[in-house]
Amino acid sequence: MSVTVRVPAKVNVQLAVGAARPDGFHDLANVFLAVGLYDEVTVAPSPGGPRVTCEGPDADQVPLDRTNLAVRAAEALAARHGISPDVHLHITKDIPVAGGMAGGSADGAGALLACDALWGTNASRDELLDICAELGSDVPFSLVGGAALGTGRGEKLRALETGGTFHWVFAMAARGLSTPAVFREFDRLAQGLDIPEPIASEELLGALAEGDPDALAAAVSNDLQPAALSLFPELADTLAAGRSAGALAGLVSGSGPTTAFLARDPESALKVAETLRSSGTCRAVRLATAPAPGATVVSA
Ligand SMILES: C[C@@](CO)(OP(=O)(O)O)[C@H](O)COP(=O)(O)OP(=O)(O)OC[C@H]1O[C@@H](n2ccc(N)nc2=O)[C@H](O)[C@@H]1O
Ligand SMILES: Nc1ncnc2c1ncn2[C@@H]1O[C@H](COP(=O)(O)OP(=O)(O)O)[C@@H](O)[C@H]1O
User: Fold this and answer.
1) 200 and 251 share a domain?
2) Is residue 271 annotated as a catalytic residue, yes or no?
3) Which positions fall inside the GHMP kinase N-terminal domain (predicted)?
4) Which residues constitute the domain of residue 17?
5) pTM for this one?
6) What is the pLDDT of residue 216?
7) Alpha carbon nearest to ligand 1 atom 33, residue
């Protein structure tokens, strides 16, 4: 018996960051959009588990010990239900590692849903969301997918309406960026400045609801982008290459270093992808549409 769950990556179409809190986190207005690049997590009984394996182009960068978010998810669910996490978790990874697209969070949410089905623990949606929030700020969104506004440290979600399909191109960078390091750089750059309370943009929420790519492009923003560019200045060349090919907008995804380009239609997305591929400014290029559904059981 095994269960497989498919989980999407995300792009942050708005990431407004407040001042550092006493607990080290930052309050956010984080507008998440799930995009059609997926990891899969397959779970099967395995005495003496948990045990994790991973396949995919970036598999060698994924930790296979108890720090893996899929392992932590299995352990958290088992502990709540007083059972042993005797499970083998296999990750088929297509989401770039340390890329600002919430790949680890996707695996955490996927493992949780898969183990719940395997073990018959029948956790409620609220219990699953609570465990997700314990695992990381981005993990609840990986479970729900679609589009959502995350407040607090990003874990308190409100579902957002979306109209139509958005066409995205993603440029994967040659190396990763650490999320805590990018937030630290944000704090360093913000020293002495007055940081406003993070608030979601009404124009942006309206553009999402209308499915209007031009209006969305005019409204996207990422307060972590200056910090990501400060730590990884070459990303400016990737952004320039995608914009020169007609992307409506180009921005760093979350803490980066993946860069995300919004295109008006599929033809324009292909042109942006082609230009990025030949620009020599990135490791790989992928096309994806949004919104994508959240974590979903695909076989059991
Ligand atoms: C920046 C974002 C935007 O969606 O995503 P990524 O770019 O990493 O994918 C998220 O806020 C990342 O969420 P996630 O990767 O789950 O982070 P967590 O494990 O909760 O926290 C890792 C570290 O990031 C910093 N952190 C995270 C969230 C937050 N609201 N404020 C923070 O300062 C803290 O230093 C924390 O110790
Ligand atoms: N299942 C997982 N997949 C990828 N990275 C993981 C996983 N579990 C833990 N990690 C750790 O989380 C870090 C951040 O990875 P990831 O979630 O891919 O990026 P980001 O936080 O930028 O979206 C990795 O460098 C790795 O050390």
Assistant:
1) yes
2) no
3) 68-146
4) 3-160
5) 0.97
6) 98
7) 25
**pLDDT, tens digit, for every residue of 6-56?**
999 999 999 999 999 999 999 999 999 999 999 999 999 999 989 999 999
- CATH number of the domain encompassing residue 221: 3.30.70.890
Catalytic status, residue 138: yes
CA distance 224 to 105: 19
Residues 38 and 150 in one domain: yes
Q: Which residues pair with 52 in a beta bridge?
A: 89
Using the mean position of ligand 2's atoms as its centre, give its distance from the Cα of residue 99 in Å: 8
Query: Of 160, 185, 205, at which residue does a domain stop?
Result: 160
Structure tokens at 270: 């292909």
The number of distinct structural domains making up the chain is: 2
- Closest-lying ligand 2 atom to the alpha carbon of residue 107: 1
Residue ID of nearest Cα to ligand 1 atom 4: 254
- Give the tens place of pLDDT for each residue, 85-132: 999 999 999 999 999 999 999 999 999 999 999 999 999 999 999 999
| 101 and 196 inside one domain | no
Give me the catalytic one of 10, 27, 107, 223.
10
Q: What is the mean pLDDT of the chain?
A: 97
Q: Which two tokens stand for residue 59?
A: 């598999």
User: Whose CA is closest to 117, among 291, 257, 298?
Assistant: 298
Ligand 1 neighbours by CB, cut-off 6 Å: 12, 15, 24-26, 28, 30, 100, 102, 105, 136-138, 153-154, 179-180, 183, 254-255
Burial of residue 102 (CB within 10 Å: 0-12, 13-18, 19+) is buried
- Give me the interface pTM, i.e. the ipTM: 0.97
